[in-house]
Each structure stands twice: as C-alpha cells, then as structure tokens.
Design a protein that fits this description.
CATH architecture of the largest domain: 3-Layer(aba) Sandwich
CATH class of the largest domain: Alpha Beta
CATH topology of the largest domain: Rossmann fold
Number of helices: 8
Largest sheet: 5 strands, parallel
Strand order of the largest sheet: 2-1-3-4-5
Order of helices and strands: EHEHEHEHEHEEEEHEHHEE
Number of domains: 2
Length: 229
Amino acid sequence: MSKILIVEDEQSIRMALEDDLDLEGYVVDGEADGVQGLERARAGGYDLIILDIMLPGMDGFEICKQLRAAGDTTPILMLTAKSQEIDKVVGLELGADDYVTKPFSPRELLARVKALLRRGKPISPPLERASFGDVEVNFKGYTVTKGGQPVELTAREFSLLQLFVSRPDEVLRRDVILSEVWGDGWDVFPRTIDTHVAHLRKKREDDPAEPKHIPNVRGLGYKFASDGS
C-alpha cells in the first residue's frame, strides 16, 4: 500500500487531500510546516511527496532542492499558484517530477498521483515460473497446471494471475488492477474485475467460496497469499 506525505500549510486543502487519498486506500501523513515536512521526508518510507511551494519555516523549492541533493529520488508533486508560471519551471529544474496548479480538481490530482506512483515503481525482472499449493505456472510458456493437470486461462485471467503472483501479500485496489491488467482508458466497472477474479478462483482454488490464495480485502480489493494463509 503506497504511503504519501503532504506538506501543505492551508488546512482546508491539506485535509481535503488527506481525505481523498485515504478513500483511495493510500496511507497519508500531513505536515503544515516546511521544516517539519523536510524532516518527515528525510525519515523516508514515502512513495510520493505532495509539496506546496509557499510554506512557513522553509519553502517547497528548498525542500525539493535539499532532498534531491541528498540523493532522495522519491517522486515529488508540487502544488503551484495559478499566476506563478515561473514556479513550475523552477520546481521542475530543482527535481520535482510534476506539478498541479491551484485550484485543482480532486480527479486531476488523483490521476497525477497514480501516474507518478506507477512511474516510481522499481523495475523487477519478469517472473518466469511460480508455484503455490498444487499450482504450477510457467509465465514464459503461458501454461498453468493444477495437480499436474493443465488449466486453461484466458489472456486476461493469465495477466491477472501474473499481477497477483508478482506482488505477493500486497493489497491491490481495484483501480490498480484495472490500470495494470486492462490499461488506462478502459471503461470497466468494478464488478467486471470481481467477475474475472471469481473465474480465476474457480480454476485454481481448491474451494473458490473460501479462497486461500486470492482473498478479498473488504473495502479495498484483493491480495495474493502464496502460502495460502
């Protein structure tokens, strides 16, 4: 689950951002002061920093500059005033990854957040094989067996299985599943994702009604438990 730091001194904006991101399933911390925000950011553990420019104690430019000088590569999304076009240029030159202009819509900000989080993920070598329970998967050969017998999966089901296996014990929200398996631009209802997961369970769970490997996480999505716990 991604962890986000918001450094914004306007309480109404900070609280609204915290609420919106919390509803999306992110873990969110907030700071109103620039110095304290820098200390939080330096402590590490964040997947994204949302950083206002005008802050008490230390402005967003200086925070960004110090983080990048220290080798911190955490994605930074800067919040800029509409009338200050130069702020965008300076922020990007100092190492910010993107910016949103105030006032902004929650939908726009969430889209930028998701894009930066995807971009910031470390690239791992693709899995070639995996096994769990009596299931064997050959990702290079696109084959699946259960108890030694072949299991036929659709291309979408195979992509879904590959996503789960590559991110064990991580809660995957439906929007993440949609982006990774269907791609951006698809108008897919959450029920469609649930249906594909249900079909996958029927083909590889011993008891699809009580799934051990792909359980629901109520209110969030699904996770993959390779050991079935």
